[in-house]
Design brief:
Layout lengths: L1 E3 L11 E5 L7 H13 L5 E8 L2 H5 L10 H11 L3 E6 L2 H4 L3 H12 L2 E7 L3 E2 L5 E2 H11 L2 E5 L3 E2 L2 E2 L2 H9 L3 H8 L4 E5 L13 E4 L10 E9 L2 E10 L11 E6 L10 E11 L7 H28 L1
Parallel strand pairs: 1-4, 2-3, 2-5, 3-4, 5-8
Antiparallel strand pairs: 6-7, 9-10, 11-16, 12-15, 13-14, 13-16, 14-15
Helix pairs in contact: 5-6, 7-8
């Protein structure tokens, strides 16, 4: 996959099949839409996802919800799906002023030469979100490209959306996040030095990205990725109330059966199941006893997951 930041520099094979949207979290609804574009382009054309960067909400409002994925994470997911081109179009107030018709003429027709465009049922575009999927379909008929509107995608009785995924994540329901996206929520970052309290459970401490939606506070069974290898882990997300009245929220990952020093190293932690709330303990001994119970429960949860995956 090629990442393109100058739309005029795109050298795509015809026909050009475009998926439009912001695709925050790349959930299963997004995957169905983008997957159709990729399959349509498989006969010699080019599949293109065009997203605005930064997210339009971050430019237009002062109360934008936190994002589910960084642009780097989004690109990694799309590359695994088999996309040909990811177009990162800059977004500013001038672009926000474009009419729907101007956007179609300038971007889809003149710049991309789109043959077919895929959008979601709730897609809006143009100044003041004046354009919708119905208008795009009409403009496509006038300008010579086809438009396919993807209906809502349900998992169980829930329509999958970025808003739903964000709420599940912030509630700590990481199992629901996995159902709606096909991926466990991931925390990525450089391991920081901790406070060195010597409890007997060394942790790899990660600061949380302030631009992203954060998992609910609590203790999680997790899988850590270090140098491409997977390890079981227990992760606390919170501000350590046993030791502090106020403290920044961070992730503390105790990687099981692991003895390497990781300070300064980039690691990834996948949250698999929330085990309990974060809470304040009356003394260190009570905290240590609970950590031991957390480790036992994490072993049980992760071993059960491995059995299920082996069956599948």
């Amino acid at each position: 996959m090629e990442i393109v930041t100058d739309l005029k520099a795109l050298k795509a094979n015809k026909p050009v099949i475009v998926a439009l949207g912001n695709f925050d979290g790349v959930h299963k609804g997004h995957q169905q839409l983008i997957g159709k574009a990729i399959r349509m382009a498989n006969d010699g054309g080019s599949s293109v996802v065009m997203v605005f960067e930064p997210h339009p909400r971050m430019v237009l409002t002062n109360n934008s919800p936190k994002l589910l994925t960084t642009i780097e994470q989004k690109a990694e997911i799309l590359e695994r799906m088999g996309l040909d081109y990811l177009l990162l179009s800059p977004f500013n107030r001038e672009i926000a002023s474009w009419t729907p018709e101007f956007f179609v003429d300038k971007i889809l027709v003149e710049t991309l030469g789109a043959s077919r465009v895929y959008v979601g049922y709730n897609y809006f575009f143009g100044r003041g979100a004046q354009g919708n999927a119905e208008l795009l379909t009409e403009l496509g008929q006038q300008k010579g490209f086809e438009v396919e509107v993807i209906a809502p995608v349900k998992v169980g009785d829930q329509i999958v959306s970025s808003t739903l995924v964000r709420k599940c994540l912030e509630d700590g329901d990481v199992e629901a996040v996995e159902r709606y996206t096909g991926r466990w929520p991931r925390l990525q970052g450089q391991v920081q030095h901790g406070e060195g309290r010597g409890l007997g459970f060394p942790t790899a401490n990660l600061d949380l990205n302030p631009e992203l939606a954060q998992p609910g506070r609590g203790v999680y069974a997790a899988r850590a990725i270090v140098d491409g290898e997977f390890y079981d882990a227990v992760v606390n997300i919170g501000f350590k109330p046993t030791f502090h009245e106020e403290y920044r929220i961070l992730a503390e990952a105790h990687i099981l059966d692991f003895a390497k020093v990781l300070y300064g190293q980039e690691i990834t932690v996948m949250l698999v199941k929330r085990l309990r709330d974060e809470r304040k303990f009356p003394d260190i001994e009570s905290l240590i006893a609970q950590i031991r119970l957390d480790i036992e429960e994490a072993h049980r949860v992760l071993n059960e997951l491995k059995k299920i995956q082996a069956i599948l």
